[in-house]
Specification:
Elements (H helix, E strand, L loop, with lengths): L3 E4 L5 H12 L3 E6 L3 H13 L4 E5 L5 H14 L3 E6 L15 H26 L8 E6 L3 H4 L6 H21 L4 E8 L6 H4 L5 H5 L11 H12 L10 E4 L4
Parallel strand pairs: 1-2, 1-4, 2-3, 4-5, 5-6, 6-7
Helix pairs in contact: 1-2, 1-9, 3-4, 4-6
This protein binds NADP nicotinamide-adenine-dinucleotide phosphate.
Length: 248
């Protein structure tokens, strides 16, 4: 395949699994990270070792200039862009809305909403048939928090994912005739480092009894859903929100 894919936040967790699977499917992969260079380079090394092509690119999703530099690096070093996965995202420590600072809210919304919007804009400018591209796919990694609301933990995070769901539906309609499909995967609780960054490393095991399938999910299961949505097998699917949450 002579196409590249940008996976934001691909140094660890779900993004890493998506980047590795994308390379297996033949994409040239941009492994984006914020600060964990060694982890991103290890993902690139793993792709190289398996005969694929990848580059690690630092870009903070809260900084537009970083995002523009990331897309420029892909333009220069990889095949034409065929897919974007807006995966990078953050949570914060559990708090009630009444306790949330402006700084926390700005960080949450800039990282989880504004960054993905700018990435989507840049991807559309490159992939849209209307702009001389040859079409492509965008998958936004949302969360089932968007329909649960995450009370007493992080309503701000849940609201950011609700915004991404609406962006998915609206953008999908906007670019459907331009050869771009836009969908979201909404994971439930998945074993990654994100829970430690929210102050509770064992969160998945605490809440898994509330999952109908009685277990947390693996990053690989989210990667499988994402790559399926980007594949020709999902060719008539756009604007969909695919829950991958063990039935929750
Ligand atoms: P994770 O293990 O914490 O990894 C986060 C990744 O995002 C890392 O690669 C990190 O880069 C990157 N990142 C964080 N802030 C960034 C920024 N400002 N700019 C660029 N990259 C940034 O997270 P995860 O659990 O894999 O989550 C991935 C996505 O799935 C998120 O959108 C999350 O909301 C969603 N999700 C996760 C779960 C779950 O249970 N894990 C459930 C539902 C939805 P560095 O390594 O450089 O820090």
């Amino acid at each position: 395949m002579d196409k590249s894919m940008i996976v934001t936040g691909a140094s660890r967790g779900i993004g890493r699994a998506i980047a590795l699977k994308a390379a297996q499917k033949g994409y040239q992969v941009c492994v984006n990270y914020q600060s964990n260079k060694a982890a991103a380079e290890a993902v690139v090394k793993e792709i190289d070792a398996a005969g694929g092509k990848a580059i690690a690119v630092q870009a903070d999703m809260t900084v537009e200039a970083d995002i523009l530099k990331m897309f420029a690096a892909v333009d220069e070093k990889l095949a034409p862009l065929g897919a974007l996965v807006n995966n990078a995202g953050i949570v914060d420590v559990a708090a009630k809305v009444e306790e949330m600072s402006l700084e926390r809210l700005n960080r949450m919304f800039t990282t989880n909403i504004t960054g993905p919007f700018i990435c989507a804009r840049e991807a559309v400018r490159r992939m849209s048939i209307a702009h001389g591209g040859s079409g492509g796919g965008i998958v936004n990694i949302s969360s089932i928090a968007a329909r649960l609301g995450s009370p007493n933990e992080y309503v701000d995070y849940a609201a950011s994912k609700g915004a991404i769901d609406v962006m998915t539906m609206g953008l999908a309609k906007e670019v459907a005739a331009d050869g771009i499909r836009v969908n979201a995967v909404r994971p439930g609780v998945i074993y990654t480092d994100i829970h430690a960054s929210g102050g509770e490393p064992d969160r998945v095991d605490r809440v898994k009894s509330g999952v109908p399938m009685q277990r947390g999910g693996q990053a690989q299961e989210i990667a499988d859903a994402t790559l399926w949505l980007l594949s020709d097998e999902a060719s008539y699917i756009t604007g969909s929100l695919l829950d991958a949450s063990g039935g929750r």
